[in-house]
Amino acid sequence: MDFSLAAEIEPVNRLMRRYANIGASLADVCLVRMSELHSNCKVLTLDRDFLIYRRDGRRTIPLIAPFDA
Questions:
Q1: Residue 3, in any domain of the structure
Q2: Per DSSP, which regions of 1-69 are E strands?
Q3: Beta-strand (E) ranges in 2-66?
Q4: Per-residue model confidence (pLDDT) at position 1
Q5: pLDDT value at position 59?
Q6: How do 59-60 and 54-55 pair as beta strands?
Q7: Residue 68, pLDDT score
Q8: What's the total number of domains in the chain?
Q9: 31 domain residue, yes or no
Q10: Is residue 69 in some structural domain?
Q11: Residue 4 CA to chain centroid, in angstroms?
Q12: What is the model's pLDDT at position 26?
């Protein structure tokens, strides 16, 4: 997938602020942003924080994960 941090800096900064209390990494928020841009995607992860993250404010992110999603 194509992703330009320079082009998405404002939404990524917004997500960084939103999830600052749980210490979201830049990589995590970039994946959240990518899931917003590509609504038919699923995120492959081992990170349980993706159970907390939401795309477009309230929508869960479809996951491929070894834990209950």
A1: no
A2: 43-44, 54-55, 59-60, 63-64
A3: 43-44, 54-55, 59-60, 63-64
A4: 80
A5: 97
A6: antiparallel
A7: 72
A8: 1
A9: yes
A10: no
A11: 15
A12: 98
> What tens digit of pLDDT does each residue of 24-68 get?
999 999 999 999 999 999 999 999 999 999 999 999 999 999 987
Domain of residue 33 covers: 9-64
Quote the distance between the C-alpha of residue 38 and its chain's center: 11
Structure tokens at 8: 């998405």
Dihedral, CA atoms, 55, 59, 60, 61, nearest 10 degrees? Answer: -40
Decide if 1 is inside a domain. no
Burial class (CB in 10 A: 0-12, 13-18, 19+), 24: buried
CA distance 11 to 16: 9
Question: E strands, 1-66, where?
Answer: 43-44, 54-55, 59-60, 63-64
Q: Which amino acid is at 27?
A: A
Whether residue 16 contacts residue 23, with contact meaning beta carbons closer than 8 Å, is answered with no
pLDDT at site 69:
62
Within 10 angstroms of residue 10's Cβ, the number of other Cβ atoms is 8
